[in-house]
Amino acid sequence: MILQDKLPFIPWMDARTARLPGIQPLEPGDWLRVDEAFAAQMAERDRLIANVPQDVWAETPQGHAAARELYAMVLDKLRTTPGYDIRLTEVLRPDGVVVPLDPDSPMRTLGRLVQEDLCLMEANGSGEHVLTAAVLCFPASWTLAQKIGRPLTAIHVPVKAYDQAMARRVQRLFDAIRVEQPMWRMNFLIYDDAELHQPRREGFPRPRPVRRDLVRVERQCLVRLPRTQAVLFSIHTWVVPIRKLPPDAAAALLELYPA
Predict the structure, then answer these.
(1) CB-facing half-sphere around the CA of 230: CA atoms within 13 A
(2) 249 beta partners
(3) In this structure, is residue 63 part of a structural domain?
(4) What are the distances in angstroms from CA 157 to CA 11, 146, 150, 185, 216?
(5) Residue 126's pLDDT is what?
(6) Which of 25, 29, 57, 127 makes an SS bond possible with 135, Cβ 3.0 to 4.6 Å?
(7) Residue 181: its pLDDT value, please?
(8) What does the pLDDT look like over 168-205, one tens digit per residue?
(9) In what order do the strands lie in the sheet with 57-59?
(10) Cα–Cα distance between 93 and 30 in angstroms, integer?
(11) Short-list 69, 9, 61, CA closest to 232
C-alpha cells in the first residue's frame, strides 16, 4: 500500500478550488513535485512500465515532436531538482535508482523519472485538443488505450459534469494557456482501495466505496510547451488516510460524500 502522510493543499476547503473547474495560476516551474512517497511510487511506475508498457504509455506520430520537447524540458528541470544527478546517458533518481536515457522513447523514459503522469494535448485543426502522447501509470478510472488520439470531448464522454458548456469552457482554457502562465487545479474522491493503477474502460464506472477511509487527490497542471505549442497535462497523485487529515477537513470531506 503506497500512501502519503498529508496533502500539500486541501482543495475542498478553499472556495477557489472546491468547485469545477477550480483553475488557478501556477508559479512557473512548479509543475513537478517530489514527496515522501517518491521511492514507493517510482518503484511501482518502474514495475508497470516494465511489465505492461502497452497499458501505461502511448505516442501518436503527431505527438513525437512534443514528446521530445517535453523530454528536454523535464531533464532541464531535474538538473536543478535536489536529489537528481543528470548524467550523459543516465539519470540517478533521488531514491538511488539509475534510469537509462532514451530520447527515442521520451514518454517511457519520463515515466521512470518523475512521479507525475504526463499527457500531451495538441490542437487538431478542428477546434479541439487531442491526446497525442502520454505516460499514464496511475489512471483513476480511465484507460489510456481508449483515449489516445481522441479529442477532449470524446475523452470526457463518461464524465457527467462535462456537458457542452463545460466542454466549451475547458477548450477555451486550453486555447488561452500562455507559455509564461501555466495553470493548476486539483480533484478529489473518497476511495477504499489504495491501488494507484486503476484503469477502467468506458461504461464500467468505479464501484461505490464500501469504506470511507482514503482520499485520492490529483494535482493537475497545464503547461504550454514553447516550441510545439502542445499543452502538457501533468497529474501528481496523493492517497492519504482520511484519519490523517485535519479534523475539520475530514468532516467536510465526509459531508460531501455521505455514506
Answers:
(1) 25
(2) none
(3) yes
(4) 24, 11, 11, 20, 22
(5) 74
(6) 57
(7) 94
(8) 766 777 777 999 999 999 999 999 999 999 999 887 78
(9) 24-25, 183-191, 214-224, 231-241, 117-123, 129-135, 57-59
(10) 18
(11) 69
Distance separating alpha carbons of residues 11 and 16, to the nearest angstrom? 8
67 domain-assigned:
yes
Q: Structural domain tally of the chain? A: 1
Residue 226 counted as domain residue: yes
248 alpha carbon, distance to own chain's centre: 27
The residue count of the chain comes to: 259
Please check whether residue 158 is in contact with residue 10, taking contact to mean a CB–CB distance below 8 angstroms: no
CB of 102 closer than 8 Å to CB of 109: yes
The 3-state DSSP class for residue 135 equals strand
Cell of 179: 507559455
62 phi and psi angles, rounded to 5 deg: -65, -30
Q: Which amino acid is at 128?
A: E
Three-state secondary-structure class, residue 243: helix
4 in a domain, yes or no?
no
Q: Give the pairing type, strands 129-135 and 98-100.
A: unpaired
Q: How far apart are CA 121 and CA 104, in angstroms?
A: 19
Alpha-helix residue ranges (DSSP H) falling in the chain: 15-18, 38-51, 53-56, 64-78, 106-111, 144-147, 152-155, 164-176, 247-256
Question: What φ, ψ does residue 139 adopt, rounded to 5°?
Answer: -70, 145
Q: Which amino acid is at 158?
A: P
Pairing of strands 214-224, 231-241: antiparallel
8 Å CB contact between 188 and 12: yes
State the residue range of the domain holding 159: 11-256
139 preceded by a cis bond (ω within 30 of 0): no
- Residue 57 to residue 137: CA distance in whole angstroms: 8
